Amino acid sequence: MIGSTRALRVFAYAVPTDLRKGFDGLYGLVVSQLGRDPLSGDAFLFTSRSRTRCKVLLYDGTGLCLYHKRLEQGRFACLWEGVSGSSLELTLSELTLYLEGSRAVGRMKLSPEKILPKALANRRELV
Question: Which pLDDT does position 40 carry in this prediction?
Answer without folding.
Answer: 92
